[in-house]
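Schema walk-through. Below, the input block comes first and the output block second. Nothing else is stored per chain. Lengths vary across the set, and this one has 125 residues.
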Amino acid sequence: MLFFFVLLLLIGLLIFICERVVPVNGINYFDLESDQLRKEVVLVDVRDYNGATKLPVEGVIHLPFAYIKRHFREIKSKEVVLVVSDPILLNLSVRFLRRKGFHVIGCYRPDHLVIQESEVKQVKA
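--- output ---
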């Protein structure tokens, strides 16, 4: 009996870790400054309020991941591009929205561009 309980606990832990860490397929990274999106596509910002105010993106529906389970019906289009701050947030958001019938076509990471620019400046110096 104890063996089955431990086995069940390990399987649950493995599923929990895989849902967060294993990357989702079919997600392209967009650069909103250069890439053109179709009018049907909605930008959804799933970052927390601190991250969204520090690096704002115009024309998005701001819906932090903590609230997405209650308010996902506010997203009018079924085609979505996510604005995220890290890969774990991307994985969790994509998996949740796909379960609800949305087609996530890509993501945008504004902080990722800032990090790359600062690394380039450090290399040049």
